[in-house]
Amino acid sequence: MGNRRLTVREIAKIAEVSVATVSRVSRGTGQVSPEMRERVLRVIEEHGYQPSQMGRALAERKHGSVAIVFPGLSGPYFSELIQGFESEVVEAGAGVHIMATHNRATADADVLALASRVDGIAVHGGTVSTETVQQLSATVPVVMLAGWPLDGIPAVRADNSAIGKLTRHLLVDHGYRKLAFVGNPGGSPDVTERWEAFLAAHRDARVAAPRNPVRLGLQQSDGVIAAGELLDGRSRPRAVVCANDETALGVLIGALGRGLSVPGDVAITGFDDVPMSSLVQPGLTTVRQPIRELGATTARLLISGVGGRGAVMDAVLATELVLRDSCGCVRA
Amino acid sequence: MGNRRLTVREIAKIAEVSVATVSRVSRGTGQVSPEMRERVLRVIEEHGYQPSQMGRALAERKHGSVAIVFPGLSGPYFSELIQGFESEVVEAGAGVHIMATHNRATADADVLALASRVDGIAVHGGTVSTETVQQLSATVPVVMLAGWPLDGIPAVRADNSAIGKLTRHLLVDHGYRKLAFVGNPGGSPDVTERWEAFLAAHRDARVAAPRNPVRLGLQQSDGVIAAGELLDGRSRPRAVVCANDETALGVLIGALGRGLSVPGDVAITGFDDVPMSSLVQPGLTTVRQPIRELGATTARLLISGVGGRGAVMDAVLATELVLRDSCGCVRA
DNA sequence: ATGGTCCCTGAAAACGGTTACTGCAACGTT
DNA sequence: AACGTTGCAGTAACCGTTTTCAGGGACCAT
Fold first, then answer.
1. Stated in angstroms, how far is A291 CA from C21 C1'?
2. How far is the CA of A64 from the C1' of D15 (A)?
3. Which end of chain B is more exposed for a tag (fewer CB within 10 A), N or C?
């Protein structure tokens, strides 16, 4: 394993041609006579020659790969997002770099260092500071994924306002009065917007909104914790609006585990419409966002080159309210 | 955005030193006098200079990143696996390339092409053909992840034999006679070994095993389909052994949705012990494998260099039987 | 003073590709 | 027959680093 790979010059020597010809044949550019092409192709085939990406990168002054930065791989949302991104990038013949920031102290520095490895970086909202993103974009094209566009930095995101429609549905159509919100608005742009849409819907319906959200993360386990905080006391909310499906499913498990009826005792809603949401009993009312498309669109933007004249600077993808049983609606 | 980055030579010119000195300072090697170091450091700081990875890669003859190849990002297993891999690689200061093969026709060729981009590749079992892996290892270090070691190619995997213990538990301790197996043994080495351990346990207990497994994929939706195939007919099995937790959870949902009692009417078991398995009602009996560790171990092997004298050639990680309610055991 | 170490620094040669430029046939035109 | 095209192949420069090697001071011991 790990035999030294042959170089253009060696292939050229073997085929008794110049390196220029080998290069032309291997990348299919320029004029090469049929017999030359044939000869070189045979040698390439025979020795399994593949041009080294590092030499090529240097000559072409591009790495041939792009990166995606996200908080961590927990749950179906990020899986789907990255799938969408990855597929699109591989399709375009480029490489995919990933980096999860978790809550590493060195996250910002690590992301900055990434800039010297790739041709473009997609940064998921809520992973690194705005200053870092600005700094980053000084050396490499950047796209904000599920975040707000910045000066010269385009964004790809979903329309979070649908959670306003959802809240309105709970308040007006179902007549619920006491709602709770699970999610940390400071954690990411998405959650900020969802919390604000939740508040706005309360104002529109002239119903008092909760003073504070239940500030927790976006994982299922956070939902289970939220259930503990919300459902045990006497002042249980009539409906729990969760920032995403994962937490909603956690709350659902917590509610059912306490012997509560959903939606009879408490209604629960989510955001994303992950596969599990249509499988659980009762089906989860949620907002569908095109997660895969978010990733794919981001990839396309990054690859086609950011910031050209007339380039997309803010792609807001449509979302859709999905009514199932958990809000109190009965399926047809 | 995208300002041209400065090169060593430019930095050298500005700081009025040679490129060699800049390089020595920026990477902290060799002897440099304090005042020189100070001067260069200031210029580097001032202009935000970062050595280009492509120049560096060429000079050092290593890309500084490794890749992981897997079928797709569906479900918690792959998320966890990749997290483990990614964390370890980033820790070591290298970059992480990913590639999902899905069932692309070009998968083998794509993986082969990866070899010119990275210093090492972890290939998940069941993604590309053995010949491709062999070919790959001729040019770049390879580690099989959740697969069998090949000549000169080390493997990192979990001990699948625990599913034999599990099967024995169902046959002997619970006395179930009619078992079914959900999973496609041809799909991946892991499933092959689990099916074989399942069969071996039947032989040991002198109980007739099912002739065929229910050949389906490893996603939750496959479990839901399996439930349809297994639970509707008259000859319903007493217990369903699934190749992983995802499908087990799908079967569980299908069973509960049909009004069947689990484990009363049908027992269900999985493999992996994903977080969800301890949250569902009833809790899922399964085999715990250290998924994150698998990824991390693979990364370490890849980074420390494959195939040196005395290097690990086959790391089999321990697994553990986790008895919960879904097999018929009552929790203490 | 002389020679020998030690430190530092810089010039230049890699590393593996791509490509602008040059040169040379062969061919067609007047 | 002289000349301009055209098509194809090769030479060499370049991409941005790292690193070997050599040279030049400063210092010390004789």
1. 50
2. 15
3. C
